[in-house]
Amino acid sequence: MLAFRFARSGLAARKARTLADAAACPASDFSRDAAVLALAARTEGVTREAYDEAVDAGDVVVAHVVRGAIHALAPRDLALYGRALLARDDDELGPQLGQHLQRLAREKGFSPREALDEVAAATKGALARGRALDKNELHEELRQRVGRDLMPWCRGCGSHHVAPMLWRYATVKAGVRLGARRRYRMAKPGRAPKAADAVRRFLGFYGPAKPGDFAEWAGIARPHAQRLWDEVAADLVDVRVDETNGWVVRADLPVLESPPTAAGTRLVPPGDPYLQKPNRKLLAPDDALRKRLFRPVASPGAVLRDGRLAGLWKVKAKGKKAEITVEKIGRLARKDLEDEAERIAALRGVAEAAIVVA
Asked: What's the Cα-to-Cα distance from 156 to each of 55, 97, 153, 203, 336, rounded to whole Å?
């Protein structure tokens, strides 16, 4: 399973032809530099300048998509992982927009659909005529355009603003992307394809899996996920690998049975597609180790050797160097880390990497 997922996530070899190809499986950009580091693990010759230019040009799209989280993805997939996965039924849209919004809807007497439509329209208005706004500027525009019932007081921010998941998914509905400097602007997502296509794509990256796994990854309610799953059920086959059973796309079964060899060393960032929840127990069977690797905030990256977890890593600036501290979990030599460390240093804008092995 790990070898199949390692290859399908693009890590078996740096052979993606373009940055968009490297972003075929959406790469989280929650933590600093996460997306560019994830793409650099999948294609050769990535530079910070080339990545930023691609993001500004829309050749790689950075946007809120699955789970309402910011990801880098191929432009052709913006509608699939964005608009197509928006629930249409209020009973399913409510959980997708979060408990805060559901509580507010009950208190104020509006529906999740009405709230999403209003904030999406306001977002389009704020970004009309080619405007590009940072997060604070966008929220200020929304304060002027959205009704007070949708602007609760936020104690942490000390201001009124739209509930977090509501405004994020409003950018999805409106068709918004971010530039390299984190400024929101209108995108061109095109017409949404069939949402069930996302099930096939998910299984292509994370199979064998179950409907609940897809629901969690996509950030949608389980009944919604099951309905999409049922639409493609004829194309799926139930398999068992060791003690785990799940479904894969029938056409992928030969690859699962004989996956490409997972070879080489990769330093992948927190939030990398290969580190998403479907893989976590396989990569880190020990509960204590898994909690250290997958933290709510400030997670380390993972050192992968031949597709398996061999260490944890963190990076910090130290003068003109990037100091990369590696905690070994398995067999790992310093020479295995050198090329990857230099790549990370260059993408962070420093000339040299210093490796500290703990």
From this structure: 31, 19, 9, 38, 44
